Amino acid sequence: MAFSSTLLSLSLLLVLLCFFTSCNNAKPANKHHRFASHNYKDALTKSILFFEGQRSGKLPSNQRITWRRDSGLSDGSASHVDLVGGYYDAGDNVKFGFPMAFTTTMLSWSVIEFGGLMKGELGNAKDAIKWGTDYLLKATCHPGVLYVQVGDANKDHACWERPEDMDTPRAVYKIDKNTPGSDVAAETAAALAAASLVFRRSDPSYSKLLVRRAINVFMFADKYRGPYSNGLKPYVCPFYCSYSGFQDELLWGAAWLHKATKNPTYLKYIQINGQTLGADESDNTFGWDNKHVGARILLSKAFLVQKVQSLHDYKGHADTYICSLIPGTSFSQSKYTPGGLLFTMSDSNMQYVTSTSFLLLTYAKYLTSSHKVVTCGSTTITPKTLRNIAKKQVDYLLGDNPLKMSYMVGYGNRYPQRIHHRGSSLPSISAHPSKIQCSAGFASMKTQSSNPNILVGAIVGGPDANDRFPDDRSDYEQSEPATYMNSPLVGALAYLAHSFGQL
């Protein structure tokens, strides 16, 4: 008892000393800082750095992921076109134009909404966008033609080799009026239009080039309608088939051109074609294939913030999507794992987590600016609620989950060690200068050893519906990273880092 009294007296003395000395002079803590679950600034840096590991082409002198080297330096030459550059979409060595364009659109939207908060990372984010747009300009250099893929995916996937070593056919696939592809063309137009806004002040001539090209590509997309996976099915399916059709991309592309040009032509196009393009469909997923939800959120801003009354319905469409995400309401359609992760599908589920988190934060921004809320039946959903849901999803991704694992490579104390990625899993050029042949690489793929090269910032497909994650390199559904998983997260992390005083 005497021992306890002594401890109590010491504790009281320490409190009094603190109050009358340093604690008395301390500044009150920012109310946000106490609740910061993660180092969002560090995660933001790494989420952008990842794109450097996915680069194809001649790498610049300031390349930071140094285990990567030049690759694909003759891409396009067989078809007498320069298609050097761009991004490998995931863990293989093919350049798929459809997801690359969506990645570029979402990186641009991240900067448009939250670039002002990025501070030192803004330049890196813009570099990541320009690496994409430089390639998309090459892919659209011939009027009436869009080059949509470099590399035979089936033959590429039969090998496990570094991009620096690849010797599989670098076949070039294109769309034109005889083989239309409104989906990939309209997404490319969206990417170019969105990026034109990013560079409007810092590089006006480049911005004008981007928007001019966007206008032309969208005209082509709209005039020659059809999904690109019809004519190119043997080459693009099952990898990036257009499952949702092309109507969503036409609406999405028109929305971005409306935002980038302020030309009433695009507003009229949206007004006339919105319903036939599926503006009011009840789908609630947003990713590289289906853009309806993103178009609704984007167009809702024109009504909420810019008071374009003819787009009133898009606020309702956006609200319907939001209500579908809210657990416990009669409108809820979304599924969550026991640990609280939004679960849309088993293959690369994290792409829906990152894209949804971005849309929630962006819509919360629009609602706040216009002093509006979302009404789900008898339940009122405030912008704060949307931000809290988004934060919970990002926090799960970064480690607040049953496995206490970060699903971003290189972030936190525990993260995936055996990601499904050729360059990361094979010895680097500096460690193994001689060529690793196509089939020889499978020895590295099948090993249980950790990947020798850390692809910092890569977001993997993530856990299953029961929060389980095997960290198995052969399980591409859960262990493969992709550019379109990272791109929406860039904006979300910038917002969170700023909100918690880290930027």
TrEMBL record:
Q: Which GO terms describe its biological process?
A: cellulose catabolic process
What is the protein's name according to its record? Answer: Endoglucanase
Active site, per annotation:
H420, D471, E480
**Which species is the source of this protein?**
Kingdonia uniflora
Q: What class of enzyme is it?
A: hydrolase
Q: What SUPFAM superfamilies does this protein map onto?
A: Six-hairpin glycosidases
Secretion signal: which residues?
A: 1-26
Superkingdom of the source? Answer: Eukaryota
> Which stretches are annotated as coiled coil?
none
What protein family does this chain belong to?
Belongs to the glycosyl hydrolase 9 (cellulase E) family.
* Catalytic reactions of this protein: Endohydrolysis of (1->4)-beta-D-glucosidic linkages in cellulose, lichenin and cereal beta-D-glucans
